[in-house]
Model the fold of this input.
Amino acid sequence: MLVLISYDVSTEDAAGRKRLRQIAKQCVNYGQRVQNSVFECLLDAAQCKQLQHKLCSIMDKEKDSLRFYYLGNRYETKIEHFGAKIGYKPEGVLMI
Done:
């Protein structure tokens, strides 16, 4: 299923900036950054729960915010893109 993950981390202190880097690093391991604090991740249910657990253990629940949007397996009809940055197919080939 395609999951859209967005986060807002308080960066007022060094600890917040560290949390921001750690959350972004975990999200990069699972998906594609589509905006500064937004990732599209193609996950199964177990991967999704695992990522949720990792991110929740990093975040400060008093200062930070984390959102998961479940777009499902038929996500192609639920996404429209306009403007800069060409879209990509999450299940397609990724060349590094």
Notes: The mean pLDDT is 87. The chain has two helices and four strands. The first strand starts at residue 2 and ends at 8.
